[in-house]
Design a protein that fits this description.
Spore Coat Polysaccharide Biosynthesis Protein SpsA, Chain A, alpha/beta, 2 domains, single chain
Length: 321
């Protein structure tokens, strides 16, 4: 199991930091922040965590082998400076594992009795009541295993990015939003969705353990679709709590973050195909996979006609995941 206790049963702790308050009727939350070359966003991310209204919170920061900054001590200093009220720990991978792999690795190295796990990108910043509201949604309905927030643009919080996601039969995401749609509360009602973004996702620890964590081979893009799909198959609902809000810079998707997991076209298509092949019913794969291949070949042809041979090659590579 991904979360099996280690021999020394280390708790998430740093120096003399103490947990804030008691349980207050809320389950403990372990926040797992994955950072990779994300110094420009990490400070805001951690400051927001330190200001959460949820009363029982711990934070694990996993540096997924950042080149910028180049060492664990730099991330540790940032965490110590900005997580003043929150018990925390910093770990660093020996090589870049990607979001899911780094999260699995970090959790395998410690013991926690947290009822809920919150996975967070370093370029996501939560409103003060976000964790409290998402945990409240989970505690109100035992049938729900995963909850995500409303996601808005980092630099323009009035612009909606995601309020839960759907997908077509081939794994292509569907946001259900107009391009540049403004947030005027029109989506502010809790509801079931097919999946929520890994930028901020809360899951019951028991569910995460039963699902055996993230798929470590999905190093970038699509890991959220896969995890939520597996949760559905195991009988756990997925919901969005739009009263909880997260600003998200989408740094990797927009090319503002250097990463070994590029190009995005390859990883996105590869992982969508992997999610479909893993989770779709066998009788559906009989006709889905030929559709995938046909559409990919048409895309390759179109890219060659547009004189984009490198992009065409990435599509071909994705078929061989």
């Amino acid at each position: 199991m991904v979360l099996a206790p280690v021999r020394d049963r280390r708790r998430v702790t740093a120096g003399t930091n103490r947990p804030r308050g008691g349980t207050g009727g809320n389950g403990r939350v372990l926040v797992v922040v994955i950072t990779h070359n994300g110094r420009r966003w990490l400070t805001d991310c951690l400051v927001a965590l330190d200001g959460q209204t949820h009363s029982d919170l711990e934070v694990l920061v996993v540096d997924d082998h950042s080149e910028i900054p180049p060492d664990r001590s730099t991330v540790s200093r940032v965490a110590k400076r900005h997580l003043k009220r929150t018990r925390h720990r910093v770990m660093r991978t020996s090589k870049a594992l990607g979001f899911g792999g780094a999260a699995n690795w970090g959790l395998s190295g410690l013991w926690t009795d947290a009822e809920f796990l919150l996975f967070l990108h370093d370029d996501a910043c939560l409103d003060a009541s976000a964790i409290e509201r998402m945990v409240g949604r989970l505690r109100a309905d035992e049938r729900i295993g995963i909850v995500g927030p409303k996601v808005v643009a980092w630099d323009d919080p009035g612009r909606l990015e995601e309020v839960g996601l759907a997908t077509d039969r081939l794994g292509h995401p569907y946001r259900g939003l107009e391009e540049g749609e403004r947030d005027s509360g029109q989506h502010d009602f809790p509801r079931r969705v097919f999946y929520v973004t890994s930028a901020c996702i809360v899951i019951r620890q028991s569910v995460f353990r039963a699902l055996r964590g993230w798929d470590p081979r999905m190093r970038a893009f699509g890991e959220d679709l896969d995890l939520c799909w597996r949760a559905h198959l195991a009988g756990h609902g997925v919901a969005v709590e739009p009263r909880a809000r997260a600003r998200h810079a989408m740094a990797m998707a927009t090319g503002r973050r250097s990463s070994p997991f590029v190009p995005a076209r390859y990883y996105s298509k590869r992982n969508r195909l992997r999610a479909v092949a893993k989770n779709a019913a066998a009788h559906r794969l009989v006709y889905l996979l030929p559709q995938v291949v046909l559409l990919a070949l048409l895309e390759v042809l179109a890219l060659f006609l547009m004189r984009q041979p490198r992009s065409a090659w990435q599509v071909v590579r994705a078929l061989g995941w």
